Amino acid sequence: MLIVGHQKGSDTKQKIYRNFGYARPEGYRKALRAMKLAEKFKRPIVCFVDTPAAYPGIESEERGVAEAIALNLREMALLDVPVVVVIHGEGGSGGALGIAVGDRILMHEHAIYSVIPPEGCAAILWRDASKKVEAAAALKLTAPDLLRLGVIDEVVPEPTGGAHTNPTKAATLLDSALYRALTSVSALDSPARLEARYQKFRHIGDVGLTGDVAELA
User: Where are any strands of DSSP class E within the chain?
Assistant: First the structure.
């Protein structure tokens, strides 16, 4: 099995060293190389997502962060092995999507997953980052919201107070969910698994659409 993931760190020194979980283009390319190697040897892939976004610095843009993420989206959709994604902290924007295309999307109950962090959304819509609570409500970024909308497949429970309060118990709860997901996906043959993965992402956003509009989507 291959495990890929963002790493933020647990204290200020580690967070600075890990760039607060903001991945650079080289990180996405490294992840894709590893995933291609796992595909070659028929190993399932588990991706742990915990990032506010891809690193937005000028040097990141110069080195092609958008292209790196776009390439990962395409190639992950075609990986001929089971792929399970876990949103276990914060999944923000394309930075999260760069390693989040999979057959099953699991999400910790207190995690968030959205096209943009609430603070950024509030700053754009209202020119006021203090309206982040209103932005969070509008974004529907919680695990129950995303399960209802069909963006994720399962909510993984956490210990009281959050996963960080009891990592051992949190890992045990996640282990059960991962086992179910990997067993289910591995039972499919390759064509069926790839088609299901394609249809899963093809229909995200169809909620509320009916008739001809849904067909065009």
Answer: 2-5, 45-51, 83-92, 104-108, 112-114, 154-156
